């Protein structure tokens, strides 16, 4: 559910902000994956999903360990 919610939030934001993806490096790549991606770059869906899932795991996880920063 967290992943679906994150995609539902970041996808419209990508098209609203319209930040272009970084230019590819001049080095030759074995796999040219960036040519397959055409959607805008910001906000990062991968980072948003990682944050959402981490938050979910922290909230739902056991709290029987010491928490100190």
Characterization of the model:
With 69 residues, this protein is mainly alpha-helical. It has a domain at 1-19 and 42-47. It has helices spanning 2-17, 45-60. The relative contact order is 0.21.
Defining traits:
elongated, mainly alpha, single chain, 69 residues
Helix content: 40-55%
**How many E strands?**
0
Provide a count of the helices.
Answer: 2
Q: Topology as H/E string? A: HH
Nutshell version of this structure?
The protein is mainly α and 69 residues long.
Topology:
Layout lengths: L1 H16 L27 H16 L9
